[in-house]
Batch of 2 targets.
Target 1
Amino acid sequence: MTDIKRILVIGAGGQIGSELVVKLRGIYGNENIVSADLKDDVCPVLKETGLYEQLNITDAQRLAEIVKKHKIDAIVNFAAILSAVGECHPMRAWDVNINGFINVMEVARELKLKQVLTPSSIAVFGPSTPRENTPQETILRPTTMYGITKVSGELLADYYVKKYGLDVRGLRYPGIISHETMPGGGTTDYAVAIYFDAIQKGKYTCFVNEDTRLPMMYMPDCLKATTDLMQADFSKLKHHGDFNVGAMSFSVKELAAAVQKRVPDFEIEYKPDYRQAIADSWPMSVDDSAARQEWGWKPQYNLDTMSDDMISAIKKKIENNKLSC
């Protein structure tokens, strides 16, 4: 266990960050989790339940000021340009995902922070990687700028661990599904949008084909994996910034069937776009035995239990007129 007391969560307005802030405030106390994002019009809960700072991660001086101001001893970095948006703006993706990440690492090194947690992604893999049960150690030759930045981030994480002794940790997230905050420009966005459109519109047009199969994870498992890794004994970790984490894998056809089981009149059509090629370059399932062995990772949700919870939660939000931020 680490003795972390005050954490800065960057990119807190995003899909994972916004929910992780709430979970961390429940663990460490509201006053000890500082949220930060490029935007000021973020989910109200970030400002209502604790401290908030506006931050552009490419501004190293501002980042250092916030860390000193709040006596931060750990950083969780979720600031990123995701896969689909990154293909439209590749240089912006590099600037945010790499130059911004180096700012985090340098501030952590210079100010002697206790930990940095940075997300990686299944986007590190590419067409030459085994797609079934993708190994922890394998070929990393991605075809997207997002994937390239994530491979670079993993290598930088290991470099800072070995050269400076900095405690850096990271997970290769699969597609993350949540009813709280809509995702922001990822290739797996369909796995969230299908639930909302099924309930609100009764139909969904999918941008990948029905046979597309990718590893996915429900947000409660994502938050659990993240906090479990943060609290793991660093001395027992053989890997650092690149843990495979899995929960479930399903095709869009199987996902649609799970939705139709709960929303009988739901209809789906398929109009694949440029995101199909991205999805086809990613794993269909991953081998996460390293995470299970080194820090006890174990998911709790499958497609059915997730679908039950997603549909129930979305219907409740609609009834209460409280849809996602």
Target 2
Amino acid sequence: MTPLNFAVIGCGMLARHMHLPNLNALDETSLHTCCDINEENLEACREFQPKKLTKDFLEAIADPEVDALIVATTESFRLPIIEAAARAGKPVYTEKPLADTLENALAIQRVVDEYHLPFCVGHNRRGSPAMQEARQIFTSHMRDPKPCPWRFERPGWDTMDIGTNAGAPLVSIRINDDWKSWKFVHLQTELNRKVGLLLSEGTHFVDIANWFLDAEPVRVLCSGQGVLNHVIIIHYANGGMANITMASTGTFGYPKELLEAIGNGGLVACDHMLEVRAAGITDAPALTKYPVLNDKHPNVGMEGGLSGWLEKKRAACDDAVASGDPMQIFTAEPDKGHRRMLAEFVREIRGEREPICPVADAVLATRVCLAAAKSYLEDRPVNLSEIAANS
């Protein structure tokens, strides 16, 4: 099929490192327009050879050659762009978080629903091969658990009343981040200055938890330390729980993300999207390794997986020290799903699949994160029903 022409609105680091090269790499897409109010950002886009550069997002949307948009502005300025795109009938892929407030998130949802707009929110872990495999194994196990032949069971449990949720799921997500990598815009809003990245980054991991557990979140408890470290506990209507530890006092020398999904006597772990491990789940592979992207050290850590990545990362850190360039630490990155997410969005536009990340799911993740922020600031559990527009 003829590739779809995309305009990218908001051409900062994320767009230039992910969206622009991905648009040029996919057969289904073509980079047409780069739009940004910052002249330096626009100049930096020239290496990707867009057909057009502009500072006016309305001009980009109105261009008859533009078929669809990627919106990578800050979350405080997305609603006007999405409204204009909907009126023009242009599908939208927007970065997360969906919006800076629940009011704006709900307004975006109304626009998307009213115009039946093909729409995708960039919770890109849904496009990661490792995350997709881990979720498939876990959800299949939770729906139809097979007895584990070696499970150790003491006698008497068959007569013990431990409630109706004996096999209830729990998802644990640990994030290791380094706050010195943050940009000024990460703390530009009044809320972010109080709670750090609970909204802007927290939506990623709340969305993963919601996606794995596939249940309604009902109550949130959050404890933290300043703007750097937070722990979120989410209770779900089906008895499931999620525990999300967001630590921003860590290091890029170690994997950023570890997810463990536990339930019905089984466990699935997804380690930095490099490995998926399973135990206690009949027929699930014990270990699956996944290839990395942009490997500058292909002859190091050739065994792959977590141990191979650690060797590659050490080599990259040595390069950074020798060159005096900290950007050299970025090598052999896991496939976080950005390119696959974009390809699936094109399939959605063409009517070949349901939305990979519907707007309603993104609104829900936003509500949970706002409940976490309220819980942290007020030092109490918060029911999700308390988080409503204008509250």
